[in-house]
Amino acid sequence: MTNHYTTVLKVELDWGNEVYIGHIEKTYSDGFDLILGADICYHQSTVKPLFETGKALMELRLIGSGKFILGYVSLFKSNDIIVNVKV
Fold first, then answer.
1. Residue 44 φ/ψ, nearest 5 degrees
2. Residues sharing a CB contact under 8 Å with residue 87, sequence separation 6 or more, in sequence order
3. GO MF annotations for this entry (predicted)?
4. Is 17 a domain residue?
């Protein structure tokens, strides 16, 4: 009988912070199967760093082997345009 174990980690992401991203890349060099964010886009200025951070961390894995899922509910029309462009 083979046992398969899954490890679930909760890691804070300080998106846009290159030093912090470098630390995450070194600590979790195999990358992530899933990066999940929900209700985290309140200001236009945070959208670009969020997606850049997600992209950098997804690039630690083979293309297509990880997922970056953002749960987004439209609260501010000005953010909708930026989020839709990044997606």
1. -55, -40
2. 70
3. protein methyltransferase activity
4. no
Average pLDDT over residues 53-71: 85
Please report whether residue 18 resides in a domain. no
Nearest to 54 by CA among 73, 72, 34, 78: 34
Number of domains observed in the structure of the chain: 1
Within a domain: 45: yes
Handedness of CA 25, 28, 29, 32 (dihedral sign): negative
Give the residue with greater pLDDT, 36 vs 79.
36
In which domain, by residue range, is 46 found?
31-86
Confidence of residue 79 (pLDDT cuts 50, 70, 90): low
Tally DSSP H helices, then E strands, for the chain: 3, 2
